[in-house]
Amino acid sequence: MDSPATVMWTYLAVAVAAAALASASTPVVPGLGVNWGTIMSHPMLPSTVVQMIQDNGIKKVKLFDADEWTLSAFAGTNIEVTIAIPNNQLARMSENCKNAKEWVKENVTKYDHGGIKIKYVAVGNEPFLTSYNGTFIKTTFPALKNIQTALNEAGVGDRIKATVPLNADVYNSPSSNPVPSSGDFRSDIHDLMVDMVRFMHSHGSPFMVNIYPYLSLNLNPNFPVDYAFFDGGGRSISDNNHQYTNVFDANFDTLVWALKKAGVGDMKIVVGEVGWPTDGNEYATLSSAKRFYDGFLKRMAEKVGTPLRPGPMEAYLFGLIDEDMKSILPGNFERHWGIFTYDGRPKFPMDLSGNGNDKYLVGAKGVQYLPAQWCVLKPEVKDDSLVGTNIDYACYNADCTSLGYGSSCNQLDNRGNTSYAFNMYFQMQDQDVRACDFDGLAVTTTVNASQGNCLFPIQIVSSAPIPLAVAHLAIGRVVLVAIVACALVFI
Hints:
Blueprint: H1 4-20, E1 32-35, H2 46-55, E2 60-62, H3 68-71, E3 80-85, H4 90-95, H5 97-112, E4 117-123, H6 140-153, E5 161-163, E6 166-167, E7 171-172, E8 184-185, H7 190-202, E9 207-210, H8 213-219, E10 237-239, E11 242-244, H9 247-261, E12 269-274, H10 286-302, E13 314-317, E14 374-377, H11 387-397, H12 414-428, E15 442-445, H13 466-470
Parallel strand pairs: 1-2, 1-13, 2-3, 3-4, 4-5, 6-9, 9-12, 12-13
Antiparallel strand pairs: 7-8, 10-11, 14-15
Helix pairs in contact: 5-6, 11-12
């Protein structure tokens, strides 16, 4: 009899094959986009990913750089693309307008004339996170102004807008009155934020904010679970005759109040990132992710909006594909935000139209895998004195986040943990025979090493240029990411 893992692999393969037969014209809720991050060891070909995006009817994509290898795959697709200037380039963009003009010429004008539909230029990514200790405080706004000027002078500023994707920790409500209407920009950056939003508003640029209900739940042991979702059943808060039944609405409207107090109450808001991870933590599960996305997409389809901003919304799901090289400083879940696995398989049924007609999304086509072999602990090994050090080495250099508490492989015994770690390193190294030694403790096998619901993956063949796979190693969202005081009212 086949093992549960083998059955699961077969089931997923059938699901992907069935999804591939679905119509490419599947409707997607208006305003919906996806974030495509590339902090992974073995990224798929951009053409493969873009085809997958098109097959699922997605019309908006947000990138985290302006990498030519990735961006060129959008030529002729009519997909709206947001490109980005990484934080480590903000200082250069802020120095003078000449640098900004050169960047716009190389990364905007060239592609704009080449059939790529650029919509936004993201100047930095969450540059005011408190964990950055003010590193980008002095460079972000000057860089934003120079980029917008460069876009205007290039003749594209009327349709391509510069903005700064910001984390929800740039605004808050005081603990003495934790409701949206008491919200304002963070005190240490208040004046800067007011100047910046007024500048963006004057140029028709949106406020791009990243909101993560999952992080509110994950970081606060007293947070009411149902308040992180959209299907009710939990407690609510009342503010100025408005009822808030979920943290997303409360968070979003806290920003609306901050913008009102800055004199730009009608400023457009784009949700730059919103999503739910599927592994690496007890709350990061497939079922919870499905519950979150089902509720969020339904609200988008119904154009519910929030109490202060009813109506349609523009929002980008985070993220498209799992990224096995992201920093796990915030938590093991950081590598599992994708609605698709590392090799482009849909993780669970969902309906991007928001109508609740669940089916598996169309997976990546033509993905090639390394040979069907795994690296495991030798059956005859009894002395485990060397095992600990080798596991540490394997997991330092590969992704073992699925072994953590509450994760999909948490149920493995010690031998299973060891084999999983060895295999992840072996796959990361493209199955180099020298990567399956570990002081003589390991051996390769052609028998599927997966156990129960824990899948031991086989890596894909990747032709990514080295810089793409390693250049964007970043801290990511750290600690205060999504908690807003109004969400902590239940403590």
